Amino acid sequence: MSAISPLEQAVHAARALVLADLVAGDVAEADVVSLVEDSVVQRRWWVEQWPEGAGFLPGLVAQDVQDALLDKYGRWPLCPVCAHGEPHALEVEPELGPDPHWVCHQAGVRVAAVGALASALPGPS
């Protein structure tokens, strides 16, 4: 059995983090998971070209999936912080950098790290 390369580990880690957030938001249907896989294919090529960007993969995959969901289904993830006004989506910050977080720009707060959205969402009642 051969060892998994650091780049491949980074790709799998990014996939797992975004899938965890989709599961937390109860939107991890098969067609949505396919959006993750589409992003992973594209980002695998990207990180092969720029290995130093491996730490940026979770945020990039999260943004890719968020954009694809907006085109097909609507905003995701909806902000769990703001109880008033129009529902709005969280954004990933930094847009290109390590340690990405879901951020509410309206409230000006970090909500959760990418992959840890479950900690910020209300639990089942």
Description of the molecule:
- With 125 residues, the protein is mainly α.
- It has 3 helices and 3 strands; from the N terminus they run H-H-H-E-E-E.
- The chain has helices spanning 6-24, 30-49, 57-72, and strands at residues 91-93, 101-104, 109-113.
- Strand 2 (101-104) and strand 3 form a beta hairpin.
- The radius of gyration is 15 Å and the shape is globular.
- The mean pLDDT is 93.
Which key features would you list for this structure?
125 residues, mainly alpha, 3 strands, globular
Q: Helicity range of the residues? A: 40-55%
Helix-and-strand structural type? mainly alpha
The ordered H/E elements are: HHHEEE
Silhouette: globular
Overall pLDDT level: 93
Distance between the termini: 45 Å
Q: Helical stretch count?
A: 3
Question: What proportion of the residues form beta strands (DSSP E)?
Answer: 5-15%
Tally of strands: 3
Poorly predicted runs of 5 or more residues: none
Outline:
The chain has 125 residues and is mainly alpha-helical. The protein is built from three helices and three strands, in the order H-H-H-E-E-E.
Lay out the secondary structure.
Blueprint: H1 6-24, H2 30-49, H3 57-72, E1 91-93, E2 101-104, E3 109-113
Antiparallel strand pairs: 1-2, 2-3
Helix pairs in contact: 1-2, 1-3, 2-3
